[in-house]
Structures are given as C-alpha cells and as structure tokens.
Amino acid sequence: MARLRPKPDRFPSTEDLHHSRIEGVNVIRVSLSPDGKRVPESHALDPEARATWAPCSRPVLPLSLTWQRTGPSRWELSFPIPPSARCLGLGERYGGINLRGRVHTLLTTDNSRHSESVDSLYKSIPILLVEQGRRSFGLFVDSPAPQRWDVDRARLGRVTVELLSRRGFALYLVGAAALPNLVKAFTHLTGRSALPPRWSLGHHQSRWSYPSEKTVRSIAAELRRRRLPCDTIVLDIDYMDRFRVFTISKRRFPHFGRMVKNLRADGFRVVTIVDPGVAKSEQDPTFRQGKRRDLLCRTSAGKLFVDEVWPGPSCFPDFLRPEARAFWGERLKILLSRGVAGIWNDMNEPSLFRHRKVLASDAHALPPDDEQLFVQQTDEGPVGHLEVRNLYGHAMNRATWEALQEQRPDQRPFVLSRSGYAGMQRFGAVWLGDNRSWFEHLRMSIPMLLNLGLSGMPFAGVDVGGFGEDADAELLARWYQVGIFYPFFRNHCVKNATAQEPWVFGSDTEACIRRQLEKRYQLIPYLETLFAEHRESGAPIMRPLVWHYPDDSTAAQIDDQFLFGRDILVAPILARGQEWRPVYLPAGLWHPFDGGRALRGPGYQAIAWPLDRVPALVRDGAILPLAGPVQHTGELASADIVFRVFGARARGHYWQDDGATFAYQRGVFNDWQLTFARGRFTAKASHLGYRPLRRRYFYETEGARRRARLK
Ligand code: GLC
Question: Is the beta carbon of 315 within 6 A of some atom in ligand 1?
Fold first, then answer.
C-alpha cells in the first residue's frame, strides 16, 4: 500500500478525490481538470450504477501513482509495477494476454493489418488490470481522448500513461483484490451486458456480400438442406443502393420485406450492416434531413465535414448530440419496419478513407481544435474531434440500442459493433474487425478476446474462417472448433477471397463443421446461464485460466487455452498440420467433452484433437445443461434438456427464461441449482418466475440417461 504522491504541477490543474466500496472492493476516484474547469460527463459509466462516493483527502492507494498536467493538452500518469505482475485488459490489443513490455495506443482506428506492429485497433477501453494474485489492482482512465500506455516497455517496472486532452477526466483506482472482484467492480461502474436474444447466440452466416435476394435465399436453403444449424443471415453493404445507408437496392432486393419474412418462417433472422458515413448528395434523404436539422459534423470554420467511405464523399452525424441519436433511430425504422432483426454497426471509429491516420504516432500534444478534422458538440460546447474520437462508435451504438429498445420494447436488441469505448457492453456485441484466414489470427483470437472480456465486454467474437485472404479446409474446420466457444459466433469473409461457407471444402470438412455446429447449439442453455452469471458478477464468458486458478503459476501464463465459463477448458489446435498438442490441465480431473478417459492435472498432457472432435475438457464435479439437437434456436424452447454430470459428486447451475424479452428483469425467469451426489440428481429452484413450454428434462451420468425432475 502506498500513499498518494501527486507531483507539483507544471500546468495548473485541480483534483478532487473520492472513495467508495463497490462490490466489496475499494475504488478511489480522482477527478482531474485544468484549473477550475468541470470534468465532462462520462459516457462510460452506467447511469444505473450505484456507488456512494465519500470525499477522501489522504487516500491509501493500491499503487503508488503520480499524476501531472505537463502541457496545455497533455497529462501524464505513472506508477511502478512489481516484477512478477502481469498486465491485462486495455480492451482490444493484438498480441498475447500479458500486455507488459509494449506501448498500447488507445485511439480508435480502422486498421486491417492486424500484426505485432499495430498498436491501435478499432476499440478503446482504458482499463489496465495489474494481476498479481489476490492483490491485483486496476486503473481506469475515463477519458475518450488519445492515450498512450507504456506498459513497462523499458523493463524498469513502470507504467506511464500519456493522455492528450485539454479537458478534465476521472481516473479510478480499483483494488487491491483478486481479478474476478476487480472485474466485478469495474462492470458495476460501467455496466454489464443485457441478456442477448437467444437467436443471437446461434450461428451467424455472413459474407461481404450476399448481393441479391437470390443469393441470400440460396445460402439459407443450403444451410437447411445440409442440416447445418444456423440462426442468422447477415447482409453486408451490397444490400444497399450504391452503399448509401438506409437504402435498399430495388434491383437486387426487389422484395426485401417478403424475403425477410420467408426466411423468418424458416427460422432465420436477418441482420443488416449500417455505416455512419452518409452520402453527401441532395438526392439522399438521410443527408438532406441530417443537413437540414444540422446534425452532421462541421469543421471549425462551420463547413460540413466531408470525407470518403464506401458511398464516396460522405458526412457524419454527431452522435454525441441526443438529437442526432434520435434522428438515427428514426432512420433505422426503414430497416426495422421491414423485419430486420439486428443491426451491425461498422466503420464507426469512424473510418475515413482520406484520413487513415488521424494523429501522428509521435504527437505529444493535441493539434488545435481547428486542425482536428471536425468539431463535435458536447454539453460543454464544441470540442475538437480527436479529443472525443474514442466515443464515436460508442455513441452510434447507443443510438442504435436505444432505437431498438424504443421501437421494439418487448424484444432484446441485437447490435453488433466494430468500435466502442469502456461500457460498450451495455449496447450489444462486438467483433474484432478484419482479421485474415491465417492460423496466426486464429491463435491470436484467444488472448484478444480474453483481454476484451476482462475489460468488461463479454459478448464478442472474431470472423470465423478469417475475413481477408483465402481459407482452406483445415483452417476452417479448426476455426469452427474454437468458434463454437466464441460468445458471438459468425463466419464472415471478404469479397475477393475464396468462399468459406461450411460446405465449400467438400463433404468431409462439412461433416466436421456440422458436428461443431451441433455442439454449439447443445451448449446454448449453458451459454445462457453464463450470461445470467455475467449479469450478477461481471464475469466474462471466455476466461483466462488464472480467473479460476489464481494460485497456479503455470495457468497464469497460458493464453492458448481458455475456460468457457467455469467448467469447460478449451484447448484447441492452433497451427497447421498438427494433430495433437500439449494441454495444460489445472489441478483436478478433466473429462474430454466428447467422452473418453478422464485426465488428471495439474500438468501437461499430449492430447490429439481430430477435426471432428470438440477440443475441450470438462471439470470433474460439473453439471452442464445441454440441449438439442436443433437446426436453429427457435427449436430450443421445446427441446429436451440434458444435465450432463461429470464425476461422482457434481454441482451445476441452470438459468431459464423466454430468451427474447426483458421480462427477466421483472423476475420472469427460473434459476436452478443442480447437484449430483450418492447417485442422486436434484434440481432445486432458487427462483421460479417463468413458465416454460412443455419439454423433457434428463440427467446423464456415464452415458446413462434418466428422467430428471425439477422442483
Ligand atoms: C469492413 C468490415 C467488414 C465488412 C466490410 C464491407 O471492412 O470490417 O466486416 O465486410 O467493411 O462492409
């Protein structure tokens, strides 16, 4: 524990300290602002977060932090970290789970070259978790301005954060506590994901693009004919007329509404892409209205800001303004009224083809407001874009989420986004942008999604099969073996690459993928239970091993395996040509998911995973609620539920609700505690509020299935 040591300011600033206990964890908030100015409203904090802040003048911090305003638009924070500590979080980072040893820039960027040499991607979540067992701590810097986190690059045991802002901000010191408690407190502050609509947990089939009704119908028909379970067909930019947002090509989609309806009858939902760039054309109603109501971003000289995206010269709504968010919501009716089930927000960093790089890598000050591309309107007045850039996609997601909630109050929204800021879990799901069909990117998806989960975002995935370049049979099959464990599970692929629908590489590969898809659908009751747990505790769905095994120093290093909830250890093959891999098993007995002899940890075991196996093991002592087999989630509500028991004594948890509405928030759900001991299975309700469809329940031990009674 260290005392607070602010350095003398070179530039005047004021500070204001408060503390609170949130979810049993100490949280100290330091509000910093240029002398006398107010700290701007936060877009990260959950308006429903309950915290009582008490003033504190001499706080005891979990780390020895200094802060300083070092220029008119520059702040510097610095703190030492112990030699053995691992640094996690920071949202979407390309690389292994331990972020130590590198600089991480937080400035939302559309960059499709995901490699070790890029240090900023689409999302910005400024929370770093310094993991050191039960004395871990977190630092959350709640500012949407550009930030550069030097996480001990020089190996001198120090983290330095450079923040480029003329405005004030709040920072939060969380801890010391164990990692799950830090995430619990952080997600209390920034909010937790709502329960997703059940259909969105199924398999999504996407391509840039399915350019016509005919293609869409044939893809859907093919999936059903081949009995490849799927819930969603995704429409990329070619459903639009000349890529103009809120248009539908009459030529290629002459009966859009009817198509959506027919697909729905066959158990499919349609999700459409929406980009923020509005074509600058007087013929375009979104542009005309946006301009007339003055909701599009302007330069500091008062001219409309114009850049290039898919539709050519485009303008950009200022989503920080409530009127612009409401306007966007009205425009969304064009899609929602035609039965579109969910909205995919893309290019919302925002991506600007004429300004691929918005700030020089070596900038140590913000350019003046009139050189920040455009200005945005905040409650304190106009602000240069760069200062709030990290909020652009976040605010667009909020606009979309709120519109869906308002227009369909009885349905859980589904919003998918590429960009976002801390707290984005309140507004839907994310994927990690334009990866490639490389084993390296399959491998990297694991630590990247783990860090995102630790940063508060549970509902995430990457393009299965890889977006750019050509997939092949082996890569695709291997990717599905991992993809069935991504909370958001979508196959998506670029235009000019080999197609990668599950059947493209022939019947052997298709059969392997079919098996994986069937397993995904089996796992949906377990996955829904995990989402219900996330609402309670903020726990991510995909968890690093250290989450449940904090005292196991080997587990702490591992980021090519993960836990799917507490009970399933996923340890897939992540390189070409390999048939087996060393799998690290934490202490205890582990049962291969597909059956076979149990293996004992702690220690490494060589395990072979043929392409048709599920590369996962289940913890002895677990009971998994499983369902199926089904072709889409519409069939799940009446499908049999099987509680599969692993071991002689076991416990489990099963959550059940309608999977579609917000009724669960009013207690319309059931929650069962499952136990198996001395040959007896019991399911005891800890909450009963929902009346499910008639269905059968079984429990299964060592291959024998018996009827289960739920009390
Ligand atoms: C962006 C998206 C990608 C999409 C493409 C065309 O690159 O990341 O998923 O397919 O734009 O809309």
Answer: no
| Cβ burial, residue 594 (10 Å; 0-12/13-18/19+) | middle
pTM: 0.97
User: Residues 587, 601: contact at Cβ < 8 Å?
Assistant: yes
Fold match, 198-278+321-358+400-537 / 542-617 = no
**pLDDT single digits (tens) 483-498:** 999 999 999 999 999 9
| Assigned superfamily of 622-707 | Golgi alpha-mannosidase II (2.60.40.1180)
pLDDT in tens, 90-143: 999 999 999 999 999 999 999 999 999 888 999 999 999 999 988 999 999 999
Q: Which of 92, 97, 190, 188 is nearest to 141 (CA)?
A: 190
Q: Is 434's C-beta closer than 6 angstroms to any atom of ligand 1?
A: yes
Index of the ligand 1 atom closest to the CA of residue 112: 7
Decide: 275 in ligand 1 pocket, CB within 6 A: no
For residue 273 and ligand 1, the question of a CB distance below 6 A is answered with yes
**Nearest CA residue ID for atom 10, ligand 1:** 208
Give the closest residue (by CA) to ligand 1 atom 7.
434
* Cα 614 to middle of ligand 1, angstroms: 30
**438 class by beta-carbon count within 10 Å (0-12 exposed, 13-18 middle, 19+ buried):** middle
Res 12 pLDDT > 50: yes
Q: Which ligand 1 atom minimizes the distance to the CA of 347? A: 1
- What six digits make up the tokens of 189? 């502050």
Q: State which CATH number among 3.90.1010.10, 3.40.50.1970, 2.60.40.1180, 2.60.120.10 fits the domain covering 542-617.
A: 2.60.40.1180
Compute φ and ψ for 474, nearest 5 degrees. -65, -45
Angle at 139 between CA 137 and CA 141, to 5 degrees: 170
Pick the CATH number of 198-278+321-358+400-537 from 3.30.428.10, 3.40.50.2300, 3.20.20.80, 1.10.8.60: 3.20.20.80
User: 208 in ligand 1 pocket by Cβ < 6 Å?
Assistant: yes
Q: Which residues are tagged catalytic?
A: 346, 349, 434
Query: What's the gap in Å between 237 CA and the centre of ligand 1?
Result: 8
Closest CA to 352 of 368, 330, 372: 372
Contact status, residue 275 vs residue 245, Cβ threshold 8 Å = yes
